[in-house]
């Protein structure tokens, strides 16, 4: 993969009641994917040519995006302000697959070229109110997108899309930040809702798996962080999160392929997360210091897939708890730190592949 990215920003100081930010963003990304599938007999010996190569193909793609954006803040008072923002992005995509020596299921694959271009506008709105110097509240709404693209199939069957639209999200959030007891405690809390539409998923069309804008989802959640500094040098923190993420709509072709139905939780999304953090800095002579810390993390169990998937069965990914330790020394501005992550070597399973690998020995042992 080759990627070039550049960005330029202009940020103003406060100009009376106004404040602004403006910028340009550019990215150019090129990728090459090679797929090779060889066939062998039961002894591992490759079949005779041309039956030894079932699939051999190369796909190249190029993605370019140029975007301009700007935010404008208006201060009604020093304690109440409103921000509006806009971002306009133009993207162009080209892809090529097949060509000389390309084979798909023993059949030559001719060169196929695909092109796609699109313009997407996203928005931002924020309202902030600071009732006291130690309390700040906010309301925010913001949109985002993932680029669409061409359907990388030269002859998609009836019912399949020829181009894939961008999927988009709207994020709505309300929160509060507070400082208590002259900085002894800092509290950040928020609730949010995310509406995700035109999700890019794989659907089944005339027994061919293709990309599609196949559904919608909703995520409701809450987050809270508490930081305490009870004595000099000691910092204690707790972060907790709750997420309720589920599919709300799904296309019939997508459901037939991935097994999703409305109401299914989004795979690999834990409902609860928690982190407990402690750090202590011990001053030494001449401005040097020792540091000690630990982090305890917890993640609740989560589904590995959708409910009705046959080839990718839904299983419960177990919850996970890990403990990390760290210690360091700062000498004349140079810091050296030693870390131990996952102190008790807890088994962490994150994907279905890991679950299947774990289940096979148990099944074979049962048969034996």
Automatic annotation (TrEMBL):
Residues 22-343 form the TonB-dependent receptor-like beta-barrel domain. It is a multi-pass membrane protein. The keyword RNA-binding does not apply. GO terms for cellular component: cell outer membrane. Keywords: Cell outer membrane, Ion transport, Iron, Iron transport, Membrane, TonB box, Transmembrane, Transmembrane beta strand, Transport. It is found in: Cell outer membrane. One of its GO terms (biological process) is iron ion transport. PANTHER family: FERRICHROME IRON RECEPTOR-RELATED, TONB-DEPENDENT OUTER MEMBRANE RECEPTOR. This is TonB-dependent receptor-like beta-barrel domain-containing protein.
């Amino acid at each position: 993969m080759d990627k070039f990215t550049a960005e330029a920003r202009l940020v103003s100081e406060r100009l009376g009641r106004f404040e602004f930010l403006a910028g340009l963003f550019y990215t150019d990304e090129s990728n090459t994917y090679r797929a090779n599938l060889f066939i062998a007999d039961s002894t591992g010996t490759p079949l005779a040519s041309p039956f030894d190569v079932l699939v051999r193909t190369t796909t190249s793609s190029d993605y370019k995006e140029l975007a301009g954006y700007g935010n404008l803040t208006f201060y009604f008072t020093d304690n109440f302000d409103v921000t509006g923002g806009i971002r306009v992005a133009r993207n162009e995509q080209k892809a090529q697959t097949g060509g000389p020596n390309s084979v798909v299921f023993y059949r030559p694959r001719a060169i196929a070229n695909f092109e796609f271009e699109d313009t997407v506008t996203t928005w931002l709105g924020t309202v902030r109110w600071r009732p006291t110097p130690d309390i700040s509240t906010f309301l925010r709404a913001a949109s985002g997108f993932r680029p669409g693209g061409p359907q990388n199939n030269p002859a998609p069957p009836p019912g399949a899309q020829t181009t894939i639209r961008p999927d988009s999200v709207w994020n709505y959030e309300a929160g509060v930040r507070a400082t208590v007891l002259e900085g002894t405690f800092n509290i950040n809390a928020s609730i949010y809702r995310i509406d995700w539409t035109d999700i890019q998923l794989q659907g089944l069309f005339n027994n061919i798996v293709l990309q599609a804008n196949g559904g919608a989802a909703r995520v409701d959640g809450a987050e809270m962080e508490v930081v305490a500094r009870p004595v000099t040098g000691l910092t204690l923190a707790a972060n907790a999160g709750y997420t309720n993420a589920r599919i709300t709509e799904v296309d019939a072709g997508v459901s037939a392929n991935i097994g999703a139905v409305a109401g299914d939780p989004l795979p690999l999304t834990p409902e609860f997360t928690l982190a407990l953090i402690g750090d202590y800095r011990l001053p030494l002579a001449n401005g040097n210091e020792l540091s000690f810390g630990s982090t305890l993390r917890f993640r609740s169990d989560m589904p590995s897939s959708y409910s009705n998937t046959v080839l990718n069965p839904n299983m419960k990914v177990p919850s996970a708890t890990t403990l990390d330790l760290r210690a360091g020394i700062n000498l004349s501005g140079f810091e050296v730190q030693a870390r131990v992550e996952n102190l008790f070597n807890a088994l962490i399973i994150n994907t279905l592949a890991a679950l299947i690998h774990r289940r096979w020995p148990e099944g074979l042992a049962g048969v034996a």
